[in-house]
Amino acid sequence: MTSVLILGANYGLLFAMRLALGGHNVDVVCRESEISALNRIGINVDLAARGGNTRTTISSKTATLNIRGISASEAESNHYDFAVLAMQEGQFANDQL
After folding, report:
1. Residue with the larger pLDDT of the pair 89 and 51
2. 42's torsion region: left (phi>0), alpha (psi -120 to 50) or beta?
3. Residue 86 in contact with residue 15, Cβ under 8 Å?
4. Rounded CA gap, 34 and 15, in Å?
5. CA angle 36, 67, 28 (to 5 degrees)
6. Which residues pair with 58 in a beta bridge?
7. Cβ 14 vs Cβ 92: under 8 Å
8. Torsion over CA of 67, 69, 72 and 74, rounded to 10 degrees?
9. What would the pLDDT profile of 2-61 be if each residue is shown by its tens digit?
């Protein structure tokens, strides 16, 4: 099982969900308000089937996937097999976020 660090909740959540569905452990670095929501509610992804007539919603909580929101100070690079930068340029250039 691979451990993955994703920097950026906004763009990284769909990728986090896909990795977790594949059986990997995923930590997503978020803002404080996002950490609470992600850990409490989880991720819900609404997918359209081919042709668009049927929709399926997948929830990280009901599927018991290993996704958790963490702060930047909790992310220690030696705990992960790889990291993904999933931010807009303005976000990773601003050290105040």
Report:
1. 51
2. left
3. yes
4. 17
5. 65
6. 45
7. no
8. -70
9. 999 999 888 899 899 999 989 999 999 998 888 999 999 988 888 887 877 888 888 888
